[in-house]
């Protein structure tokens, strides 16, 4: 089954304790992206990757890191989480050719609480 | 820069009636794509429909159609024959190419409630 797999689904952590949210896709998509969703707001883009070893900042990158060492994986790293990073996080992937614009396939989401 | 505006925080519709969810956008890209996604209360994001900026015809997918008016920079979603299962949050989104390749922008969403 074609899918984007995020882990964990739920996470409660303490301020300052480094964490990683994993994201993996099995569709050979070039493009991957991370978003956060807060109550009353749409999805805001954190980081995206056009292909392996190519990453760039979205609209809200502060406090986050990413890496794209393999095509299928795009982990999101919070090196020193703070309570304002409490949010619902989504990973998404798609084909990346500029010749056409394709829809995203989203992961199921990770609900992160930082206390 | 890209911007998506959804001006209806909440909408109600009677079952079996049609409803239009508004979306206006702004971008400097000459070529772009517009998308609608559905987010049920369970939280997952579901792709509904896509419209390319150079497409001559409005997109349709089953009960979903996109009323694309390029000059007005609007991309409204029309749901025909609403069903109870259509109750969800709906997001309008944009992807660009060229200067905005890789960037995507979502609106704040519209919560649709279908009444029996």
From the structure above, extract its key features.
heterodimer, A: about 120 residues, mainly beta, 7-stranded mixed sheet, 4-stranded antiparallel sheet, globular, B: about 120 residues, 6-stranded mixed sheet, 12 strands, about 0% helix
Describe the SSE topology.
The complex is a heterodimer of chains A (115) and B (116).
Chain A: E1 4-7, E2 10-13, E3 19-25, E4 31-37, E5 43-51, E6 54-57, E7 65-66, E8 76-78, E9 87-94, E10 105-106, E11 110-114
Parallel strand pairs in A: 2-11
Antiparallel strand pairs in A: 1-3, 3-8, 4-5, 4-9, 5-6, 7-8, 9-10, 9-11
Chain B: E1 3-5, E2 10-14, E3 19-21, E4 24-26, E5 32-39, E6 46-52, E7 60-61, E8 64-69, E9 74-79, E10 88-96, E11 104-106, E12 110-115
Parallel strand pairs in B: 2-12
Antiparallel strand pairs in B: 1-4, 3-9, 5-6, 5-10, 7-8, 8-9, 10-11, 10-12
Rounded average pLDDT of chain A: 93
> What percent of residues of chain B are in strands?
over 45%
| Biggest sheet descriptor of chain B | 6 strands, mixed
Q: Radius of gyration of chain A in whole Å, from Cα?
A: 13 Å
Largest interface: A-B, 26 and 26 residues
Euclidean distance between termini CA atoms of chain A = 36 Å
Helix content of chain A: under 10%
Describe the global form of chain B: globular
Give the strand tally of chain A. Answer: 11
Number of separate helices of chain A: 0
Helical percent range of chain B? under 10%
Please provide the ordered H/E string of secondary-structure elements of chain B.
Answer: EEEEEEEEEEEE
Gross morphology of chain A: globular
Strand content of chain A: over 45%
Number of helices of chain B: 0
| Distance between the ends of chain B | 41 Å
Low-confidence stretches of chain A: none
* Overall pLDDT of chain B: 93
How many DSSP E strands of chain B? 12
Give the structural class of chain A. Answer: mainly beta
Low-confidence stretches of chain B: none
